[in-house]
User: Fold this.
Amino acid sequence: MADDARIDPRYAAQFQRGFDPARDASPVRRGPMRLEGGPPATAPRVPDPPRKAPAQPVEVPEDAEELTPAVAPTRVASTWWDWLLPGIGAVFIMIALMLLWSMATDTGAFYGSGVTSEWEVFLEQARWMLPSPLLTAGVVAITGGIVLQAVRPRE
Assistant:
């Protein structure tokens, strides 16, 4: 706005520099305006769907039960694949618990076992390191098996 004396029409006049209510009051009313002639025309309504005649009762012959076989609800049979993942998880947890028990009852670890060969050192280290990953893998496998059973599609 180059001239400070003029009122910029983009903004409310009473908040601009140089506003004089006697001089700058516009006859145009801001806000909603009432239209003459009622509300504006709207789009035509979509016609209602066609109405169907009520269904007539169907007569069933007396021997109809003989013609239509009884169908039992189908149930998906449980297979050994369904229990494979939780079973592997249970085996992992049992191995981890056995390793923890062997560590808890091993007096040689506290009093010096006299481990001399590399193979014995490897087995000792494996016994100390394996229980935590085996427990984690077992819990994850059992949880995964339960979740897979829950989301498996049924017939």
About this structure: The two ends are 74 Å apart (CA to CA). The chain has a mean pLDDT of 78.
